């Protein structure tokens, strides 16, 4: 197993920005994900690791070895693309064997390795099928086998699930995760889908406009986002603006509206947020951190009275959009379909102190 280091790597395309100053160390055996909206530079960064692009600036290391200017075929990486990039007129076997034939391996060895790779992705017995006789999910598994059969040091996956329908996407996601754990291979995964990133990754690098926003474990990114962009891109969040009224004993009182005052913990602040009395701050509160209170609890700390604008039952949860004076509130209650409130009903919410996170 080897790690990958991007040492202040940038890529410019003429005047266009590409990516800027990406600085990260991916550990041996890690499942590491580049996450961000379309155009933020995920593919560009991955292609530099594969050697399909060379950086305009900075260095790329595999372990201790500087590979910055090494051609792709010398790097021993396996790559899976969004559109599979298989040879449609060739069989499953021929597609998987391709990389081994290029490497001039013997017939018996190729047969052994391809058979094993087919087994690994649950395609035993499919060797003689043509690619155009397979479903999308099966095609993606051929692509995965083709990448793995060469026994790469690093597995690179660029949005491998985005052409699959929802059910198959989840199955294949678990399949990729299982393979990665089984093989222990250093894996770099690209996606714009936050739930995919959250569920699969050891760590995630969130990108926007070619610039890294945050690197961390899924729970860190989710619970301690560094800025508004990360807070709203990773899952749903209420982003409320207010003014610090009091700062005492590790507690922060923030005035959101004349009727709503929330108290949070000063330690739950992003590094960019320096709390001080009189200062404007943005609060991030996850919808699932909000609880329903009774009218008698209104006036207690961290409660608010609101009116339901929209309610929906998803099966797993009841989701509300409600209005508390000028404040818009998104709330989510798990498994409470039996007492769902309708439009225009009054509700009372309470926000736990430790679920408030202070942003810039
Ligand atoms: N070959 C290229 N020539 C010019 N601009 C490019 C090229 N590849 C990517 N870009 C630009 O670089 C930025 C990042 O693109 P990309 O890495 O493909 O984003 P993502 O994979 O996150 O959707 C975009 O603005 C894109 O238009
Ligand atoms: Mg891309």
UniProtKB/TrEMBL annotation:
Protein origin, superkingdom: Bacteria
Domain annotation ABC transporter: ranges: 4-234
Protein name, UniProt field: Spermidine/putrescine ABC transporter ATP-binding protein
GO-annotated molecular function: ABC-type transporter activity; ATP binding; ATP hydrolysis activity
InterPro entries per record: AAA+_ATPase, ABC_SmlMolc_Importer, ABC_transporter-like_ATP-bd, ABC_transporter-like_CS, Mo/tungstate-bd_C_term_dom, P-loop_NTPase
SMART domains assigned: AAA
Keywords noted in UniProt: ATP-binding, Nucleotide-binding, Transport
Gene Ontology CC: ATP-binding cassette (ABC) transporter complex
């Amino acid at each position: 197993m080897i790690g990958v280091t991007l040492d202040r790597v940038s890529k410019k395309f003429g005047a266009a920005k590409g990516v800027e100053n990406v600085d990260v160390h991916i550990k041996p055996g890690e499942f590491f994900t580049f996450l961000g909206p379309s155009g933020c530079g995920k593919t560009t960064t991955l292609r530099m690791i594969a050697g399909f692009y060379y950086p305009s600036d900075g260095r790329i290391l595999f372990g201790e070895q500087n590979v910055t200017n090494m051609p792709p075929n010398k790097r021993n990486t396996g790559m899976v693309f969004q559109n599979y990039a298989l040879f449609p007129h060739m069989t499953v076997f021929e597609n998987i064997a391709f990389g081994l034939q290029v490497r001039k391996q013997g017939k018996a060895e190729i047969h052994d390795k391809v058979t094993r790779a087919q087994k690994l992705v649950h395609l035993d017995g499919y060797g003689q099928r043509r690619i155009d006789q397979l479903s999308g999910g099966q095609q993606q598994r051929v692509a995965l086998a083709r990448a793995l059969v060469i026994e790469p040091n690093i597995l690179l996956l660029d949005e491998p699930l985005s052409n699959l329908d929802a059910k198959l996407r989840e199955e294949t996601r678990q399949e990729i995760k299982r393979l990665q754990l089984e093989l222990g291979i250093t894996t770099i995964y690209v996606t714009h889908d936050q739930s995919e990133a959250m569920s699969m990754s050891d760590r995630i690098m969130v990108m926007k406009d070619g610039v890294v926003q945050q690197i961390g474990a899924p729970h860190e990114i989710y619970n301690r986002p560094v800025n508004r962009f990360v807070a709203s891109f990773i899952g749903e969040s209420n982003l409320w603006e207010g003014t610090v009224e009091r700062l005492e004993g590790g507690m922060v009182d923030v005035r959101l509206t004349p009727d709503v005052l929330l108290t949070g913990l000063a330690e739950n602040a992003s590094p960019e947020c320096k709390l001080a009395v009189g200062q404007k701050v943005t609060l991030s509160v996850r919808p699932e951190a909000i609880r329903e209170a009774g009218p008698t609890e209104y006036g207690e700390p961290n409660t608010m009275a609101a009116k339901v604008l929209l309610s929906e039952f998803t099966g797993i949860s009841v989701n509300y959009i409600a209005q508390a004076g000028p404040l818009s509130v998104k709330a989510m209650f798990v498994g409470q379909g039996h007492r769902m409130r309708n439009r225009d009903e009054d509700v009372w919410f309470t926000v736990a102190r430790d679920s408030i996170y202070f942003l810039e």
